[in-house]
From TrEMBL:
Pfam families: SHOCT (PF09851). Residues 47-73 form the SHOCT domain. It comes from Nicoliella lavandulae. This is SHOCT domain-containing protein.
Length: 77
C-alpha cells in the first residue's frame, strides 16, 4: 500500500513539473515572437513603444522588458 501511495505522489509531482515546464516554454516563445516583431522595424522609438505596450499588457515581465530595451538601444548605437 505504501508503494502505491509513493507512486501516486511521484506521478503528481511529475505532472506538476511537466505543466510548469510547458507553461515556461509557451511564455518564452510568446516573448521571443513579440520581440522579433518589434525588431522588424528600424525605428527605435517605435520599437521601444511596442516593447512598453508588451510590458503594460503583461505579455512580458520587467526583466524581459529591460533586457529587450537594452538590446534595442545597443543595436541603435
Amino acid at each position: 500500500m505504501l508503494i502505491i501511495i509513493i507512486a501516486v505522489i511521484v506521478i503528481i509531482f511529475a505532472i506538476a513539473f511537466w505543466r510548469t515546464n510547458r507553461n515556461q516554454n509557451e511564455h518564452t516563445k510568446k516573448v521571443n515572437d513579440s520581440v522579433n516583431t518589434i525588431t522588424d522595424t528600424d525605428n527605435t522609438e517605435v520599437q521601444l513603444k511596442h516593447l512598453k505596450e508588451l510590458l503594460d499588457t503583461g505579455v512580458i515581465d520587467r526583466e524581459d522588458y529591460e533586457q529587450s530595451k537594452q538590446q534595442i538601444l545597443h543595436n541603435k548605437l
